[in-house]
TrEMBL record:
This is Activating signal cointegrator 1 complex subunit 1. It is found in: Nucleus speckle. One of its GO terms (molecular function) is RNA binding. PANTHER family: ACTIVATING SIGNAL COINTEGRATOR 1 COMPLEX SUBUNIT 1 (PTHR13360:SF1). GO terms for cellular component: DNA repair complex; nuclear speck; transcription regulator complex. SUPFAM superfamilies: Eukaryotic type KH-domain (KH-domain type I) (SSF54791), LigT-like (SSF55144). The gene is ASCC1. Pfam families: AKAP7_NLS, KH_1. Plays a role in DNA damage repair as component of the ASCC complex. Part of the ASC-1 complex that enhances NF-kappa-B, SRF and AP1 transactivation. In cells responding to gastrin-activated paracrine signals, it is involved in the induction of SERPINB2 expression by gastrin. May also play a role in the development of neuromuscular junction. InterPro entries: AKAP7-like_phosphoesterase, ASCC1, Cyclic_Pdiesterase, KH-I_ASCC1, KH_dom, KH_dom_type_1, KH_dom_type_1_sf.
Amino acid sequence: MKVKSEREVAQSRPALSNPMDCSLPGSSIHGIFQACIKIHIIMEVLRPQLIKIGGRVYRKNPIQEQTYQHEEEDDDYYQGLVECAEEPCETYEVVQTPQGFRCTVKAPSLLYKHIVGKRGDTRKKLEVETKTSISIPKPGQEGEIVITGQHRSGVVSARTRIDVLLLTFRRKQPFTHFLAFFLNEAEVQERFLKFQEEVLEKCSMDHGVDSSIFQNPKKLHLTIGMLVLLSEQEIQQTCEMLQQCKEEFIDDISGGKPLEVEMSGIEYMNDDPGMVDVLYAKVHMKDGSNRLQELVDRVLERFQASGLIVKEWNSVKLHATVMNTLFRKDPNAEGRYNLYTADGKYIFKERESFDGRNILKLFENFYFGTLKLNSIHISQRFTVDSFGNYASCGQIDFS
């Protein structure tokens, strides 16, 4: 019996009149899956991902990434080619020298290893493909990445690829800081403890409800946005950006006075009240105005435009977490953002949801108190100050 080659088998199959039709007669699940993957790859090529870096927008060409067992994905990762999509790459500052051309890149030292790659492979590949030389400070030393080459276009190409690598791996770093209002005034802490006491008294028989899932009252806060700050320079940049927000619009919205708000009412963050993971208190202006929402949304927008906050939402949810099932195993967990350890390793958090129906029914309009919000803080995760709250690396005051 003659065994057909793979090419003969492929040629004997009927052609697809519709490229989206994966239902070939007698085709296997594997074949259908492969066909759909090919269609997905074609769509990626036709409509590649756009990456915005410093006001420039680039197309990211799709490549197949491989992860090997016992090796970190980050250690030998090369992003591939990128091309300018909207603005010319010549906007980079490239200096002509007697030896050719030179360009520098500022980056935190924690990200140098991603440009070097395992055994220096990423840097070598960049240098060969762009015909440049790339100098990177030693680990632990702050400085600039220096790109030199005989041709301006090669230096620009290397700079573009390094920018994409830096952005890619920055997004893989665990959040280090967050912008927030503190909501831990004495009255609110007392009311929160009263809420906890009454919930445990009336609902402790409900599935999953116990004292371990309540927030630490000293850490009650309203998050505006999460940050990845990898150097003192970036912390200073964040402080300056916050000060600019104050001068340009915060003072106008606040009138130079604290914003008086109420923390009252509770809501949950998933679809089934019988299986709740996060329960939060609502925060709103006492005078019924929209000033707090406008202020935090404009701060978020400004930080997203600068690249300091990755855009996920167009608006801030005004809330304060009061119960979270992640606290059950880790009292220091910080909601959905606690997906990485302090050294950047991904961790999976198993959650045992709780039945929140009685809590929502009995405490729907629970009053936690009135606060005067006078400061936005740059808070550091995994730290505690002398008052038991997150340590603040900087702040701006309204009055």
